[in-house]
Structure formats: structure tokens, C-alpha cells
Queue: 2 jobs
Job 1
Amino acid sequence: MATILIVEDEADIRELVRFHLEREGYAVLEAADGPEGLEKAQTQLPQCVILDVMLPGMDGFEVCRRLASGETTAQIPVLLLTARGEEVDRVVGLSLGADDYVVKPFSVRELMLRVKAILRRTERGSRAPTLNRNGIVLDGVAHCVSVDGEMINLTATEFRLLEDLMRHPGAVRTREQLLNTVWGYSFEGYARTVDTHVRRLRQKLGDKADMVETVRGVGYRLHA
Ligand code: CA
């Protein structure tokens, strides 16, 4: 059963989330500040991190950035807890490598659904062993990507996004299709999530960034 790390300085929220996660059968780790959260993620390698943005010691963005740039931690999906109305927080968080976010005050039911969706898409794993397009090689078994022979560090979401595009070269993928296959669900107001992840993926692809083409008003496609 999956292990989930909750990083949150408010003890009552930690307890509430732990209670519901354990009731679903998950093993739960807790951390009350940024450095502790980072350390537990690095040493315990949980299957998912629920990460508050406002934390003592080191904020959630910094924890997220460090996880996304670490070789062993980049693949751990991160679900951010952001303050209400802080659209900036969400965009920044996603651009730093978070996979998803839930706005505080959140409903526990909603949080559980998001965690399950994250774990489902991680467990589903990769369907194609190796995809190779114009110097971009995606190895679905080793779960790594190289560009012109150089390994690049992708988060779990960026990996699935690239995999989806590479599986449909030359075909337009709408934001809704991408949300459904990459995130496991789709609802209004999430288009920007896709855009943020595509922007980040392009940065990591470097010279091959323009392999991911924008189809204005529709979505994205991989250059055939
Ligand atoms: Ca907090």
C-alpha cells in the first residue's frame, strides 16, 4: 500500500488528513516544517507528498523545487495545499514541479479524490517501453528521458505529458485530452495547468523545445 507524506505545520490539519488517509488504507508520514518534510521525502521516498505552501523553515515552493531537481525525488508526485484566491501560488507551484493543488480550506473528500487520482496515474505507469522522436528518447521502463543523449530530469507529470505527446506524433492533443490522460480527470479552469506544465517541459527539452508545438485555441502536438 502506498505511503503518503503530509507536510503541514498546523497539527489539526495533519491529524485530519492522516485520519482519512489511514482509513483509506495508506501508510502516513508527517512533517511539521519544510526541512523535515524535505528530509523525510528524500529518505523515505513516499509515493505522494501533500505539501502546504506556508511552512516554517522553508516554504512549500522551495521544498517542491528541491524535490523536482533531485535525482531520486523528481518522480515523487506533489500535491500542493495553497491559500484561497492565491492564483499566483498555484501557477508558481505548478511551474516548480508540483503535480496538482488543492485550495484551502479544502474538503477532505476532494483531497482524497486527488490523492487517489495521483496514485492511480503513477501506478498505471508507462505503456510504451521506448519512444524515440528526433533525438528525444523516452524510456518507459527505466522512466527516464534523454535529449540528444543527455539525460534530463522530468517530474512524474512532465514525463506523462511528454509520453502522451510522443505517442501521438503530429496529432493535436486538446487540453482536455491531456488532462484526462495525464492527470486522470478534467474540469473547467484547468487549462492553465496544462499550459504551465508544457512551458516547463519545453524549458527542459532545451534545443528540442519547439518539438512541442502550440496549436492556438486547441492544444498541443508533437512535431511529426
Ligand atoms: Ca501552513
Note: The helical segments are 11-23, 34-44, 60-69, 87-95, 108-124, 156-167, 175-183, 191-205.
Job 2
Amino acid sequence: MFITFEGIDGSGKSTISKLIFDKLQKEGHKVILTREPGGDVIAEKLRKFILDTDNKDIKPWTEVLLYIAARKQHVDTKIKKALCEGNIVICDRFMDSTTAYQGFGRGLDIYKIDELQKYILEDNIPDLTIFFDINADQVLTRIKKRNETKDRLEEEGISFQKNVYQGYKKLIEKYPDRIKRVDATRSIDQVVNDTFEIINKKIKG
Ligand code: TMP
């Protein structure tokens, strides 16, 4: 089963994904945790390049192609294999990030992005996607508290994150069977419990 986690920057999905990974392992599931952009040696190199704050001049469609290139590499070297071997694959971000960030965030043609991804990914799409729902204002407070160095995308600011958030909301409406929403404004324990319940339901069919 292929499960992806999505949300705007600072939504907590990376922390939650590690906790869910541990919980599934403890319950005896074969599971791997991976992330995007990245997930294999080449794709991690692309990640460094894409998120480098020096690369401010990357053009919007170049950015789309770089994310999709990293994704293709990741799918072909790691995700397909792990799924074939019977693993549950948890991926921190996947194709919906490109639609939300580059499509809705940068204002690029969603249809073209969808078509590109369909062509490149073929049937390697998630069985389940969890959207960690927390809005841009709440997230900004979290980022400030964490006092972390910002990457190129995080530097885009609040209005960009707001557009991305709206993009995710549209994706939930479009794919209600695949994308499930979890209220990520609550405690980590509550978010983990809800996420785990959704995943368990899917596993049990
Ligand atoms: P991360 O902080 O969740 O690891 O993601 C890195 C950044 O890359 C984050 O700001 C979201 C952004 N991103 C896109 O803009 N498009 C994509 O397709 C992906 C996977 C990530």
C-alpha cells in the first residue's frame, strides 16, 4: 500500500510520519518511510539543488520538471520495488505537492501539471493520501517558534503558503476517496491517533 502525507510547510507531517512509521513497524507491518523531494541518492542531490536559496532564478516550469524528475527517479529506484516486496510505503510529500505548490502556489496551469504527472508516473499513484490540515497563519507561528533556517520554498512567505493551502483544499474536493483530512492544529498524540485510524481502516479494507 502506497500512502502519502501532505500539508503546507510546518504542518508537522514529517514528525507525524516518523511516529506512524514506528507504530506500524511495532504492529508487525513491513513498512518503509521515505520523502520528497528526495528518497534516493540522485533525488536527494536534486533536493539540495531545488531547495538551495542561491537558486532563486529557477523558472517556474523548470522547478516543476525538477520536482517531477526527482519523483520519477524515486519511484523507479525505490517506491515500486518496496511496494512489490509487500511493504507499506509512507512518503512524506508526493505528486499533490507539485499541484499545490507549483500549480496553485505559483499559479501554473493545473491541467498541464496533471497531464505531465500522469504521463511520467503512469499508475504509480498513492492508494491513500493524508492531508494535515493547518492553515498558513497557524503554521507561520510554528515556523517562527522553531527558529529554523528557511529553505527556498519556505522563504516564499505567507501569501504563497495561503495559495498552496487553498490548492490542497481543492485537491481534497477533487479526490475525496483518496485524500483524507486530519486536523493538524491539535496535539501530536491526537493527530497520530487519527492518522493511524485512517490507515488501519484502509489496510483492513
Ligand atoms: P519538505 O520541507 O516537506 O521536505 O519539502 C520541501 C519543500 O519543497 C517544501 O517547501 C514543499 C516543496 N515542494 C514543492 O514545492 N513541490 C513538490 O513537488 C514537493 C515534493 C515539494
Note: The CA atoms of residues 34 and 91 lie 5 Å apart.
